[in-house]
Amino acid sequence: MSGLCVDIDGIKLSLLNPFFGVLLAYLILGEPLRVTGLIGAALIVIGLFLSNQARARAPQC
Q1: pTM of the predicted model, to two decimals?
Q2: Rounded distance, CA 58 to CA 51, Å?
């Protein structure tokens, strides 16, 4: 699919919504932080890091 150039920074940013949702629920509502939530947040951050690394190595449009 040559010629298809999509800027996906906004898509990557939207993947952080669950992370910020948990953080704000903890800060504002006093919800407890659980191990599963912390593991999920770590997986989100790792996934974003890996996708940024792959994008840096990919040919630019």
Answers
A1: 0.59
A2: 10
